[in-house]
Amino acid sequence: EDKEEDDGKEEDNGSQQNRASRRKNYQRKNRDGKKVREEGSRKKDRGKTAPTKDQKESENKGKKTTKRGKEAENKQNKDRKNSTSSASSNSSDEESLSEEELAMLKEQVEQKKKLISTMRNKPWRMVKKLSVLREAQDFVEKFEGALGKGKGKKLYAYKMMMAKKWVKFKRDFENFKTQCIPWEMKIKEVESHFGSSVASYFIFLRWMYGVNLVLFGLIFGLVIIPEILMGMPYGSLPRKTVPRAEQATAMDFSVLWDFEGYIKYSALFYGYYNNQRTIGWLKYRLPMAYFMVGISIFGYSLMVVIRSMARNANESTADGDDDNFIFSWKMFTSWDYLIGNPETADNKFASITTSFKESIVDEQESNKDENIHLRRFLRVLANVLIICCLCGSGYLIYFVVKRSQTFSKMQNVGWYERNEVEIVMSLLGMFCPPLFETIAALENYHPRIGLKWQLGRIFALFLGNLYTFLLALMDDVNEKLAEEDVVKNITHWTLLGHHNSSAGNDSTVTPPPLDPADVPRGPCWETTVGIEFVRLTVSDILVTYITILVGDFIRACFVRFVNYCWCWDLEAGFPSYAEFDISGNVLGLVFNQGMIWMGSFYAPGLVGINVLRLLTSMYFQCWAVMTSNVPHERVFKASKSNNFYMGLLLLILFLSLLPVAYTIMSLPPSFDCGPFSGKKRMYDVIQETIELDFPLFVAKIFSYLANPGLIIPAILLMVLTIYYLNAVSKAYQRANAELKKKMQMQREEEKNKRNNKVSTNPMLQDLEDLFTPSTKTENTPKQAEDKKIESPNGSSPVRKPGRGEVLAGSPMAGGRGAAFSPPPQVLVTQPRTLGIRAPYPGQPRPWGHPLGPLPGRARGQPRY
Amino acid sequence: DCLFLLVYRLHGRYHEMAPNVVPMDYTKDPDVKLPMQLIINMPELKENPFKERIVESFSEDGEGSLSFNDFVDMFSVLSEMAPRELKAIYAFKIYDFNTDNFICKADLEKTLNKLTREELTAEEITLVCEKVIEEADMDGDGKLGFADFENMISKAPDFLRYYFKKK
């Protein structure tokens, strides 16, 4: 038993040749001296003088004891039994140790314990790990009893287990969170094949869906459902009934398809709502709710758009400085080692390739050197051309609208004259974007910036679209308002006449009320506007889907299958497969949302339709992209934030707020339909509520607040705050840029320093070799032993000659310190000095075979 | 106890790959090694583009055949409990195709080709390799030593996330 123990110590000696082990040597020697064991001390001497030989021996030993070692690792408890006897045999010796030595021993035990706990972190072969572990465990077992502490193992095991569980839980939770994000996998799949720019559209679409869901919840929860549950039922009022003349065809599909008939007189549109102040037993103030929901839709949208813009901006500045290792990280960390499924692996390969391509495009762009004057000239030229195009199409739209106004006054105009505006608009929408793209080729921007320009230009073109639409609508509304005045009188007289006639016939019997279907009614311009928006949205959906089906899917099928029997190569040649049109799709989404915002006040059901549209569009477009599109020729990375899309959305939101605000503030609501009928203006509902439902002083406060004397200073204050905050943020930005520059410079400096170090190091080493000539002789046999990959000590990548110098954090201090420190023989004979010298650079981790650069270790090691 | 169970399970996996070669009983310390072909067909490794390199760097003879000890070694390093430094060391070994203790351009090209299934053009590959060297090579010797590698990898945000493996 004892002999084996000694061998174990030798192993130790061989493998851990550093200060601490030397101290242990001394310790052991001391103890052995007491025991007066000749053999042991001889062996120890050998261990000191010829460590390499020992090392070999220890390796052999390690191999022999593999099996036992494994057992030791598995069942640590058994080992305890084995070593108890030796511990007891030694215990008598331990008692005689002085206090100082006891402290030292304690330290060693701690170190051994640390070694055991960090064993799994060492890059050693299992064989070696086992032998070292066994040895360390024996040591701890033996001396822990002497020092009077044996607990902690269980606690440690428990801690380890908890840590493991915690890690697993965290990972599961992360997975769960990812699974909770809707369509995350779908989008990731698209991203892996088409790049982040295409994925950014789908992310935008998903975000839009989320916003629309909230709007839908607001409108349905606070307006439509209360009206259906508690409002007067269908047929009870003229506004809730289909007029007699239309009743025959009210259920026909063609009528319903135009959103007339029963759909027009349903809770989906403004006109259906009654102006009763409170409805149902809840005394729900429906008109008030309608108004507030209409306002809060805009409020919420504005808030959410701006908040998300701010967050995006924050994120893009927060991690903007990590771009030092783009390619390296992509190369070494992009493979996901959890992948075990062939399909996922395919996606991962595609996504890695795509992301490499994206970065390559960026890199090429930044390295491009060309004739800057020519480029500038071409860019100016392209902008001039595009401005010409825009002006031309603007004038064309203006001209066509003017013409259509004259046409509308004429009778019996043809089909073309009636639909001229629409035809011209759709022709412009069809031909201008490709034209812009062609012109943009002159500019030769980075595709990401090119996309922004393209978006901006098409946006400007589509504004014309919006303008004509609103203009036509306003004409319509004005016409309806004029018509309404006439109808109002008729209705009045009809009702009066009905009453009179019934009163004249028989005054005792109450006259049978006029059937609501027979009451003459006004045109209700609000519902007309609502229907217009709904129609537009639905036709937009249909056009989008049919375009995708024909333009992408049919085309892809044609190219794919007809290619077998065609004169030229269809796939490479003319039609080829479609690319995903990011700009068109994003703008389609943005303008559609504008329609929703404008229309939702007059057609509460519109948001529901939109939610359905976005939902189907997600699945349909994902499918279409994956089946029938090809990635862009230059796959480019999307900008970090979607802020450009958000900016467009904000602009559209603002633009769509204007007409709605105008109609609310300055047009009188219809007299016989809608929640605000009978009032002069729609916003009167607020005043009414305040006057009737709140105490008097609230009304007073409100009137004060509405005073221009208060509002103008408030606006001034806000402007000043904006100015101040803007200045502050500018200052932060500057500071940020400064810091970034400093960091970059530091990095360069470090690089240079390292370069210099390599060049000066051989000289330094020669100098040190003069002092300690034994270095080389010891080093070489070991190198021969660990053939190519790994030395038995495992940390070979760290300890190859020439590498160590670079690795050591402070080679000067560490190297010199090791070189000039007294040789071990001296230390053994003079233990006190050593004790004082303990806090050396290599001291804190004397047992470890450090993985990273450790001062004093890489150089110091081979010397002893 | 939990560690023992783990090793037991691992041994089960090891045994089931070649039931007639691997004994159930390890008390006699048999010298059994499984060839690489068997190991890389494990579901955990099957889809990995670096599977051959992984197995090679864990095998003691460098040929790719694994003894049970090496096998346990491999799983302990690839497990998520293994510390970052250890993973970095083995990652370095895996990417060092020609085992010269440096990741040179040839290694980078091989890595890239395995990662992208050779879908990049030659110029793109050259560009990427040059960029990697330029980014990570701190001492200017035109190849990545372990120090460079560790310095680079330790700054990577998702290294840990991607470099572990389920048991």
Characterize the structure shown.
The complex is a heterodimer of chains A (864) and B (167). Chain A is mainly alpha-helical and 864 residues long. Among the domains of chain A are: 184-370 and 444-502 and 514-706, no CATH class; 713-749. Chain A has 33 helices and 2 strands. Chain A has helices at 2-15, 19-35, 38-49, 51-64, 66-74, 76-95, 99-117, 126-147, 153-180, 184-194, 196-230, 253-257, 261-264, 286-318, 326-333, 342-367, 372-409, 415-418, 420-443, 447-505, 525-562, 582-599, 606-628, 643-666, 684-693, 696-705, 708-771, 774-785, 796-799, 803-807, 811-820, 824-829, 831-837, and strands at 578-579, 629-630. In chain A, strands 1-2 form a two-stranded parallel sheet. The longest helix of chain A is centred in the last third of the chain and has 64 residues, at 708-771. Chain A is globular. By secondary structure, chain B is mostly helical. Chain B has 2 domains: 1-78, Recoverin, domain 1 (Orthogonal Bundle); 83-166, Recoverin, domain 1. Chain B is 57% helix and 2% strand. Chain B has 10 helices and 2 strands; from the N terminus they run H-E-H-H-H-E-H-H-H-H-H-H. Chain B has a two-stranded antiparallel sheet with strand order 1-2. The longest helix of chain B has 16 residues, at 2-17. The two termini of chain B are 17 Å apart. Classes of the chains: A mainly alpha (864), B mainly alpha (167). Chains A and B meet through helix 5, helix 8, helix 9, helix 15 and helix 16 of A and helix 1, helix 3, helix 5, helix 6 and helix 7 of B. Chain B: This is Calcium and integrin-binding family member 2. Chain B: GO terms for molecular function: calcium ion binding; magnesium ion binding. Chain B: It is found in: Cell membrane, Sarcolemma; Cell projection, Cilium, Photoreceptor outer segment; Cell projection, Stereocilium; Cytoplasm.
